[in-house]
Amino acid sequence: MSTSIQTANDRRVAIVTGASQGIGAGLVAAYRALGYAVIANSRAIRQGEDADVVAVPGHIGDRAVAQRVVQTALDRFGRVDTLINNAGIFVAKPFSEYTEQDFRDVVDVNLGGFFHITQLVIPQMQRQRAGHIVQITTTLVEQPIAGVPAGLASLTKGGLDAVTRGLAIELAKEGIRVNAVSPGIIRTPMHAPQTHEFLDALHPMGHMGDIADIVQAVGYLEQAGFVTGETLHVDGGQHAGRW
Fold first, then answer.
1. Which helix H or strand E contains 198, and what residues bound it?
2. What is the homologous superfamily of the domain 13-236 according to CATH?
């Protein structure tokens, strides 16, 4: 993302869920570099020194937490311009081995978290006649990998992929754009170094992506005012087919 200069009257506001580490933390930093104020949510996030990054801790699958996130944005800054639905849980298991608790946990975050905060943000964006909503999905939705069983990811992130297009059509005439970024496997601390060679080989380009790759993709969508209903694949070619 390139930097820009904004005055106090036109400064924009972004909400980022799953913001404490990895892709979410990268997105918070990138939106701040653009001059946005950011409301940052994750379960255990803490307020830092930057007063324009406001931490709102809590489980985004809890509607009361989602309400608190949105209300904080409105109370502090009076608007919401961008919502990044980044929070997600990934559990890799054979489908028959998922537990009921696995199901509830994944659905509560991946679908419930999206549902609550997106539903609460849309009326404010409608009042503004402008806004941008971005989901972080996964290429496994379209291109499963035999060695990576991910039925619950496909079930939930596939729903986000579909609703991205549905909402884009529903909201287009109100000035609200809705897009998604579909990553491959991204190099983050959750992947132990001893797994990197295997994970690199799952991509046609021969390596995992970096957090910066996802941040740049979101940055493109943020600035691409004529793009809506798009799922932008950032996956080293995984979505293109078998290799």
1. helix 196-200
2. NAD(P)-binding Rossmann-like Domain (3.40.50.720)
Q: How far is CA 139 from CA 28, 42, 94, 158, 211, in A?
A: 23, 23, 18, 9, 15
Distance of CA 109 to the CA centre of its chain: 12
Domain boundaries, the chain: 13-236
103-154 residue pLDDT tens: 999 999 999 999 999 999 999 999 999 999 999 999 999 888 888 899 999 9
Given a contact cutoff of 8 angstroms between Cβ atoms, the answer to whether 84 and 112 are in contact is: no
Tokens of 99: 């537990």
The pLDDT tens digits of the residues spanning 92-116 come to 999 999 999 999 999 999 999 999 9
Q: Please give the model's pTM, rounded to 2 decimal places.
A: 0.92
